[in-house]
Amino acid sequence: MWSITIKMMKKNMKMLIPAGIAILIGTAFIACTFLFGNTLNDSLRTQLTAQYAQANYIIQSTSKMSGSGSIPPTIGEVNTKQITSTDGVKSTYIQQSIPVNASTGDNSATLLAINASSDDRLLPVTMVKGHQPTGDKQIALPAKLADQLSVNIGDKVTLAANYGSGMRGSDSVELTVSGFTEDANGAFGAYGGAAVISMQTLANLEGADSESDLMFTGMTLDIDETKADTAVASIKKELPNGYSIETRQKAGDEALKALSQSGTNAVTVFLMCFGILAMLVAALVIANTFQVLVAQRRRTLALLRTIGAQKGQLYRSVIGEAGILGVIASVLGIAFGSAIMAIVVHSHALKSLGMTGGLVFTWQVFVIPLAFGVIMTVLASIGSARSATRVTPLEALRPIDISDNKRAGIVRGVIGFLLIILGAVLTVGAVMTLRSSMSSSNLSDDYPTMLLSAIAGCALIFIGLVVTAAFWMPLLMRLGGAFAALFGPAAKIAHANIQKNPRRVASTGVALLIGVTLVSCIGTGAACAKQTMNNTLDTHYSVDMIAKGSTLSQSVADKIGKIDGVTTTLYAPIARGSVIIDGEERSATLIGVPDTATLSKVLHANLSGVSLDEGKALAPTYSSFTGKVFSFKNDEVSFSASHDDGSDGASDANTLTYIVTQRDYRNVDPNVIVTLFVNESYFQTKQVQADGHIILAAVDTSKASAVDILTNAQTIIGTSAGASLSGPIAERVRWNQIVDTMLTLLVALLAVAVLIALIGVANTLSLSVIERTRESATLRAIGMTRGQLRWSLAVESLVISLVAGIVGEILGIAFGWVGSYMVFSTFGKVALVANWQLNIGVLVVAALAALLASVFPARRAVKTPPVEALAEA
């Protein structure tokens, strides 16, 4: 029986190719997913162990420290000299670091400084020019930072510790640049690299008398592998409680494991969901293929039954054929996926994402895609295998009729209808409950339950529609075909052909429906998210762009004012402090401005009738955090400005009382509850001491894009240590970038399922051409031209693709709106919009792909002469 199965596969090879391609794409995606995960892990391992440089052993604290060891010991309390002199230890490096601020004139930047090493091989960064510091008056800077500060080797930089007010070291030190460093493996990626200074300089910045007083954080060692066992045993005796020595490999494994437990493996799981979706869509293509194969072979199967073949043999024959197809296509898919990832890795395309890992093969890359491919192929063929067992010996004498006119099962219809009803109840109930909670301003703890109910409801509706597709999809196809029939005789024939196999057409349409619905849903959700957040930002921010910091200067404000798109800037002093509202102390910021006319140019608020004369202040009407109205007793506010007087932790307060005028403006300083505006004379006369300055800017995005404005502003304030940029333009750009990135990623992943579905459309047409060989020949014999026959197949393909695509768009928009309302209602009024550009683009792609899918079936249909086709049919 196996030999017969192989012969039948060879005979119908052309019919199996589209199904094989669908399996190949799905398994290739899964293989790529695991390879990408392996590359990501390899990159993370490299980054996590980059701080060890070329050390092969690490001394570090353990997670559990007992007794007095809960406080890390100082370097002087650890026998570092004994460890360094241990037989077999080539060199050691004590790991120390400190955040610092480097400045040269008007330029400054924050960075991380690490201590120098006697062995370049153990230094976590690489010297690319010059040399490490050879004394306490030298520093090696990151090359990129040196460009930003405009310094070269031999120039001077001023270094100061960049700690909070609770920790104090020396004020600053002047150092000479001795060289430039590069952080090739991203050991200090969060800081843009690291500078290198002597241990004594680092101790001075920490406020310690000597390096012995610094906390012992860890140590890296280069140990001779031939003496490693003895050396490690000796070193363990010298370590304080709570510290251990491990190999570099083990330390890296533990770090990666801890990171994976925090969610790194979620990337692989996330991508696998799309791989499984692709395989489910491929299963629909496979099922269609085997249904036609069994239908075509009914006479052959009946003859086999006549000569003694058992039902079980026929069943195993179909299942075996599917298994062979699954194995071959899956193996090719794994090879194809591996080749794609190899090209991506070796073309350095991942470096732009900060990934430096290589191509790493594990057993999952080969076993899981192969298992998925074979299992899904076999499962998809079970229905056809069962049909093969129902063939009787008498059918060998009957004419072949491979049209599938069976009606969908009533049980399936009832189950699908119940799923739709249940899903609608859950969805509507969740939306109405959330709406009621929002209207009463009382969002209860049941919000997660509402959200899950809405998700479950939409999922049940979609599953119900898929289950009942055999009922409603043919009706829509018939309507679409009826419209297409208006465009000529060839289109009428296409309309008639669509109705011949309603179940197969429904299955093909569902495959495309799944992909298009998900793409449209994600696109709609992204569009709603962007518009809702933009509206919310416009409401919650009254200044377009805000820069603040203790080191901001007038020259920085002037530079920002010259950016294309920035219309006006206001450079003003600020003071931190507090006010009393409704008997409670609230954090506040006082900003000094020349007058309301100047302020009105950058503040989006109605300032008519507002005066900022002496003794008067402008206050917000509403809280930007709660939306509640601020109430000031007797229309007065007392502002207590606190400032550091130079002693350890000490401060004095200066309280001033103002008559308040309130207007609706919000989030001028989003880090405090209340932002007050007063006349700048209070700062000029030193009645209020300035803690720093703020730059308020008005922006016109019609003159330049928000991204360009923000990028240019960030570049300018990057020279001011500790300065930050906020405001709606900054938040909008960041939010839109996140949404656009996620949208691009998800649509790209879902494109795999859409591609497989379009292959299914081509497969359906190919099968139809094979089935209608006699019919096509008859049409050709009575005068139908080749062009008309091609156009007939093109119309058939277009109707299937566009009907499924339009239904998918409608469902996707509806699900996207429901999801957006449930998720973004807590941020503000939800904007229910659609990403029409994406939706129309998907339909255009589906239409073009449908036309392309009809090319090869049409060539086959017109290639065979009518006489020969009639003779063979």
From TrEMBL:
Residue ranges of every copy of the MacB-like periplasmic core domain listed in the record: 21-222
GO molecular function: transmembrane transporter activity
Top-level taxonomic group: Bacteria
Transmembrane segments annotated in the record for this chain: 269-294, 314-345, 365-388, 409-431, 451-473, 505-527, 742-770, 791-818, 838-856
Any one of the GO CC terms: plasma membrane
ABC3 transporter permease C-terminal domain: residues covered: 273-393, 748-866
Presence of keyword rRNA-binding: no
Subcellular location: Cell membrane
InterPro entries xref list: ABC3_permease_C (IPR003838), MacB_PCD (IPR025857), Macrolide_Exporter_MacB (IPR050250)
Main location: membrane
Bilayer disposition of the protein: Multi-pass membrane protein
Entry's family note: Belongs to the ABC-4 integral membrane protein family.
PANTHER family: ABC TRANSPORTER PERMEASE YTRF, MEMBRANE COMPONENT OF TRANSPORTER-RELATED
Protein name per its UniProtKB record: Putative ABC transporter
Source species: Bifidobacterium boum
